[in-house]
Amino acid sequence: MICSLRDSLQAWNHPDFAQTLQAELLRSGALVAPLQQGMAHGSHALQDDVRLLVLQTEQDAARLRVKTGVCYSSIIPGCACEGDPTPLNALPEYVELRIDINRASGLAEIALIDD
């Protein structure tokens, strides 16, 4: 997945970097595919309670590399019929992502880290 993270690039080395990165990723829709792909319990990833944790950072002249942990929830939706006894309980999920941000363009590549 490739997206623009110019605000996050500007916030690098500032105390609000993690919050800026989370907001920009959610706003751009860049987390939809990796969260859906990384689910272990549910069948539909929710984005209303995403918490992004910066685990590790690296930088060189060309790019910023950020390893993040993402806590979120998923559900297993029922048939949504009237009287459906299946409750929509949120299930806890966690994935780790690698985000490489190009310093010149602000374009970022996001990849799910498979362990």
Widest sheet, order of strands: 1-5-4-3-2
- Cα-based radius of gyration, to the nearest Å: 16 Å
Order of helices and strands: EHHHEEEE
Approximate helicity band: 10-25%
Q: Which topology does CATH recognise?
A: Nuclear Transport Factor 2, Chain: A
Structure annotation, total helices = 3
How does this model look, in words?
22% of the residues lie in helices and 43% in strands. With 115 residues, it is α+β, with helices and mostly antiparallel strands. The mean pLDDT is 92.
Descriptive terms for the model:
115 residues, elongated, 22% helix, Nuclear Transport Factor 2, Chain: A, 5 strands, alpha+beta, five-stranded antiparallel β-sheet
